[in-house]
Every structure is written in C-alpha cells, then in structure tokens.
Amino acid sequence: MCENFLDRVQLFNVGGVEKTMFGYALERFPREVYREASCYGALGATSSSGCEIRFVREDPKSWVRVTLFAEMSQGYIPVVVMRGERVEKVHMLPPSQHYTIEVSPINYDTVENPGFFAKDSFDKSVIRLVLGSARINVCQIESYGKPIRPPKAEEIPQKTVLAYGSSVTHGAHGLLGTSFYVSVAARLMKSQVLNKGMGGACFKEKCVVDWITSLPNDYFIFEPGTNMYGEYENDEIYKRGMYVLEQYYQKHPNNYVFLLEPPMPNQACKEPEKYGALVETVHKMQRAIQHNQCILVAREDYQPDSSYVMVDMIHPTTEGHVMMGTHLAGVIRKQFEKDGML
Q: What is the mean pLDDT of the chain?
C-alpha cells in the first residue's frame, strides 16, 4: 500500500489508490481498467462514492483523526461516520479543501447489551467512513501512537454482493452512500456491497466486465440496458449483457445473479413498446444463460411506483432508493429462503 497509515486500515470497495498532489485518491476501479473505458466511464470510475475507510481502535478510549481532500470545484460531499451498523455523524467535505474528521471516545464504545447488537453484521467497534461522490484523497490518519488495525473477518459481514448498473445503481441523488438502493438491499441481507455502478456509462465494456466479474463476491445485482437505451440497438445490448453473464458464471458458477428489468418508469409509460422491447431483451438474456440461479426481477417488484423518482423522471430520490432497496431485499430473501440459503 502507498504509505504506512493506509496499511493500518481496510479500504473497502476501493479498486485503486493513486498518489496525487493532495494525498492518496481512493478510486473504485484500477487505472489499468478505466483508461480503456469511455471518457465518462473513466470519470465515474475514479469517484470514491461508496468507498469505505474501515478500522478498529485497539483502545476505545483513543482518538483518531482522518484528514481528507475532495477534488471538487463546487458543492459539499457527504462522508458518513458509522460505528458498526449505526450512523454517528455526517460530515460535509468542502470543495477542494482539507477537512479533518475526528473519531473520539463516546459512551456507545463501552455499552454492554448483547441483545441490542445480536442481529448486527458489523461489530460495533468497526469505525467506517463511507465516502460520497467525488474523488476523495486520504491525506493523513493520525492515531497519536495508539494502535489501529483493519477489522477482522468476523467483525464484518460474511457475504458480499457485487452491483453493476447505471447511475441508479451507482447511487445518483441518494444523499448518503448508505442510502443507495443496493446499499440498503445489502444491509438488509446482512451483506456488504461492492458498488461498481457507472453513472451514465454502464456500457458493459470488456475492460470493465472482465475486472468486475473477477472480484470475490457471493451474489450479483445486475441492472443492464438503462444507459444503452436509445443509443444502442437491442441486439448489441443483448450481446454485451450476455458477455457479462457468461464471464460472471465462468468465474462464479454457483452464485446467484439478480437480473433487474431497467428502472425506467417514465419510459415504461411514455413509450411502452420501445421500453417493452428492452425488457424483452433482458428476458432473452435470462433465458439464454440457462442457469437456474439467474433470477429475473421485474421492475414492479422493486420499483412499483413512479413517485420513487425525482423530477428528472429517472433518478430515485433518497426515499426512492430506500424503498427500492427494501423491495429488492425482499425479492432476494424470498429466493434465498426458497433454496435453503438462509
């Protein structure tokens, strides 16, 4: 890793760490992947949205300060500080300025109430900084001589879900990284999410597909077609979608794929024939892959109401994300229960 202070933490959902003039930029994809992607795809790949900095203080009475720098020209970027499953505080990073987040001792650290924490998938000692949508640099992690370490395997969720799709999956307009629909679904399924959504650039490019399908995971949420609608012929959408499924099952033959009908309620109402043809293309993928664990998820089963989206009529509101994630978790849970997975 780049520097000793990064060796003492876990960088989750981080595909690459790049040295910059500000510090160390946390990127969701490695440079060798995004340099082969489209220009807009490369921009999204370098975003830190959904990346996490995780660590455990060996002494819960100690202080830790994490200094960050968001590469943005305007706006404020949220960083959610969590203690295990629970939010402690939301910090708003100013554009292009250093900002220090302090983790200090609080009463929660020493609470003894096993029943309260019994269903948690994160140990409450795990400090998590969930990053927002900017290229965020880690400048320093100062623990004042007190030891911190990455969380142990038993202190984090035992299952990991991979997610790939458009800006909807990427989490556009969800106010916090914890409220994206795939984040909500993952949490309800006691999983952690590798969110590799590419806002405006989910074109299923070979360089992207080959890399994301190689990542260790236990199941896959795949939202195909949304960014390609109206720009590509359905035959090309089918061809690229099949490549995703084929590569995934070649590497993870026993995993579930939850294949989503595109979350496009405006198009479903405005141009039902055109949208219906895209949906049929997704159905065709599911039939062609011939795998019992590739599960088709109807749009109405996870986004049943057009009020879930903003006035742009495509991106979910924060509440829409939460409701979509809750519905999707219900679909996943039902399938896992049916097959004796829970």
A: 95
| 188 and 148 fall within a common domain | no
**Does residue 134 sit in the same domain as residue 216?**
no
CB 33 within 8 A of CB 208: yes
Burial of 4 (0-12, 13-18, 19+ CB in 10 A): exposed
Asked whether residue 104 falls in the same domain as residue 165, the answer is no
For residue 94, give its domain range.
4-155
**What pLDDT digit, counting tens, does each position of 94-151 carry?**
999 999 999 999 998 888 898 999 999 999 999 999 999 999 999 999 999 999 999 9
Please tell me whether residues 26 and 126 are part of one structural domain. Answer: yes
This prediction's pTM: 0.96
> Of all residues in the chain, what percent carry a pLDDT higher than 90?
89
Burial of 301 by CB count in 10 Å (0-12 exposed, 13-18 middle, 19+ buried)? middle
Residues 164 and 149 in one domain: no
What whole-number distance in Å separates Cα of residue 176 and Cα of residue 337?
Answer: 30
Strands 256-260 and 294-297: parallel
Residue pair 180/174 in contact (Cβ under 8 Å)? The answer is yes
